[in-house]
Amino acid sequence: MPNRSAGSLGEIIRQQRELAEMSMRQFADLAGISNPYLSQIERGLRAPSEQVLDGIANALKLSTDALYQQAGMSPPGGQPEDSEVLDAIAADPLLTARQRTALKEVYEAFVATSPRARARERSHD
User: Fold this and answer.
1) Within a domain: 68
2) Which pLDDT value is given to residue 3?
3) CA-based torsion, 18, 22, 24, 27: positive or negative
4) pLDDT of 101 strictly over 50
5) Among candidate residues 85, 31, 38, the one with its CA nearest the CA of residue 63
6) Are the beta carbons of 56 and 13 closer than 8 angstroms?
7) How many separate domains does the chain show?
8) What CATH number is associated with residue 81?
9) pLDDT at 23
10) In sequence order, which residues have a C-beta less than 8 Å from that of residue 110 and are 6 or more positions away?
11) CA distances (Å), 56 to each of 25, 34, 52, 79, 89, in order?
C-alpha cells in the first residue's frame, strides 16, 4: 500500500524530473539509482533513504530540505536555518554534483560540532 507522504514526495520528484525534461532512465542514472526503484519512488510505493534522496536532490540541483518542503513534509532531523545554506550549495551552477555533496557534508559536520549545536544537545538531555 502506498505511503501518503512518500507519494507526495514521489510526485514532487516526478514533476521536477519532467520540468528538467529528463527521461526516467536518464534521471535514474544521474541520481545513481535503478530505473525500477525510481519508478517506485515516484509512484509512492517506496520511500527513498536519505542517501538516495540526497542523490535525487543533487540530480535536481535542489537540497533535500527543498524537496521535503515542496512535498509539505518536515525533513527528518533537519534544522530550518540550515536550509538556506544547503539550498545555495545545491543551486550553485559552478559546482559539480560531487562537489555539492562534499561541500554539504563539510557544512553539516561543522554545524553538528558547533558550540550552538552542542548547547542544543545538552538542553535536550
Assistant:
1) yes
2) 45
3) negative
4) yes
5) 85
6) yes
7) 1
8) 1.10.260.40
9) 95
10) none
11) 13, 12, 6, 20, 15
